[in-house]
């Protein structure tokens, strides 16, 4: 969780497209202050537990199911501070992710990350 990355983008996760496999633990680290990481209601795979990190706190996400998970920073989601976890190259819940309630630039970036995931 960064205030600015090397490219000069403000309020970002250092990795926005996160590829993982079942059994991985993804750790969100509060490198800069005033950020959190959490999942979004109904925007994660069937069976996968949601998660919600507190502001300025590290949080871990244990991957238990394949599919897409949208991750947001609650204070900055509308500025585009979001990430997409792709597990097992399974994009079958794409429609749910696109329907998730994510405001502003966050929604656009999630859509762009899904396209990026498809392209690789
Ligand atoms: Cu933030």
Care to describe what's here?
The protein has 120 residues and is α+β, with helices and mostly antiparallel strands. The protein has one domain (2-119): Cupredoxins -  blue copper proteins (Immunoglobulin-like). It has helices at 94-99, 104-119, and strands spanning 2-4, 10-12, 17-20, 25-28, 38-39, 59-62, 67-72, 82-87. The strands form 3 sheets. Strands 3-8-7-5 form a 4-stranded mixed beta sheet, with helices on one face. The radius of gyration is 13 Å and the shape is globular. The protein starts with a strand and ends with a helix. Copper (II) ion (CU) is lined by residues 1, 11, 35, 73, 75-76, 81.
Number of helices: 2
CATH superfamily: Cupredoxins -  blue copper proteins
| CATH-derived topology | Immunoglobulin-like
What letter string, H or E per element, gives the SSE order? EEEEEEEEHH
> What portion of residues belong to β-strands?
25-35%
**Total discrete domains:** 1
CATH architecture: Sandwich
Number of strands: 8
> Helix amount, in percent?
10-25%
Ligand identities: copper (II) ion
What's the rounded overall pLDDT mean? 97
What structural class do the secondary elements suggest? Answer: alpha+beta
**Mind summarizing the main beta sheet?**
4 strands, mixed
Distance between the termini: 24 Å
Unreliably modeled segments = none
C-alpha Rg (nearest Å)? 13 Å
CATH class: Mainly Beta
The strands making up the biggest β-sheet line up spatially as: 3-8-7-5
Q: Name the shape in a single word.
A: globular
Considering the chains and any ligands shown, give keywords for the structure.
Immunoglobulin-like, 120 residues, 2 helices, single chain, alpha+beta, four-stranded mixed sheet, binds copper (II) ion
